[in-house]
Amino acid sequence: MGNRTDASGGYTTGNRITDFAGCSYTTDSDGNVTGRSCAGDTLSLHWSPDGRLDSLKRNNVKTAFAYDPAEDGRIARTSWMTVGVATRSRLRNKSSHNWLGPSEA
User: Fold this and answer.
1) What is the pLDDT of residues 18-71, one digit of tens each?
2) Nearest 5°: phi and psi at 73?
3) Which residues, other chains included, contact 61 with Cβ-Cβ below 8 Å and sequence gap of 6+?
4) Rg of the Cα trace of the chain?
5) What pTM was estimated for this model as a whole?
């Protein structure tokens, strides 16, 4: 099949994205996107050893994720902080699967 080249995208072997729509991307050895850089906007993604998104940082805001193994590994909590500002969190209600919060951590 080959690599995709639609919308000015660039891809390497294994169909790993390198650039798309004016942004550049980096990937890890597992093929996970670890970074995206666009004009004035930077995103870093960090993955756990089992391939789950552990955290991301966009400009000065970092968001971390916690997973609930009893709920088929669904995200149970998100926490985020802006550099120099208090951490805030959101919890997922296990029965309704609705998000609660945000609240101060």
Assistant:
1) 998 889 999 998 999 999 999 989 999 999 888 888 888 888 888 887 777 766
2) 75, 20
3) 80, 81, 82
4) 17
5) 0.68
